[in-house]
Design goal:
It is a single chain. This protein is of the alpha/beta class and about 210 residues long. The protein has a domain of about 90 residues. It is built from four helices and seven strands, in the order H-E-E-E-H-E-E-E-H-E-H. Strands 1, 2, 3, 4, 5, 6 and 7 form a seven-stranded mixed β-sheet that branches. Helix 2 packs parallel to helix 4. The radius of gyration is 27 Å and the shape is elongated.
Amino acid sequence: MKRLVYALLGVALLSSCSKDAVRNLDPDETNLYITNKDEAVSFASYHTFALSDSAVVIRNNELVEKVRTDFDAAFIDALAAQMTARGYTRVSHDNNPDLGLTVNRIYNDYSGVIDYYDYWNYYGGYWDPYYWGYPGYSYYPGFFGIYTITDGGVMVDMIDIKNASTSSQLKLIWNGLVRGSGTFGVNRAAGHVNALFAQSPYITTP
């Protein structure tokens, strides 16, 4: 019996010392990185790229504005550095780039109603109106609350400009999405870009 007690105590001590897999995550561990590519594309066939110096803000599927915060600047600089490290040459927009890259802030607002109307009806079982000195009274109807939650992320789009004239369209050949807690922290911008490119070793040119 004593051995069983000691064993249970040991398990309890280990459990109390272990890291909670959800509650104790570092900010970097909460981020989600998703990349997609056109399987038919050879990224080695492109050699130059142009990159916007600002980010596009899209809220609820509508283009709102262009911005350049400290985060946007750091993210764009890191994106340019990664492309250069992969062998691509950055050129201006009017210098016929093979690729165009855009940075987008994506926001979606979700609203709902929290109904507190009925919970007052249960008060009588615990706090009868007599308790307050008003026997025979009833509780007034409750309340409701409206909440709005904003979900945000960063999206990078890579567009084929080289073949636009022959296909008569600007074709998206790669994109990357960043979501999670503290996404827009300036000190995390470079890490986001590095993570996206770590998932995309095929983005390279001789």
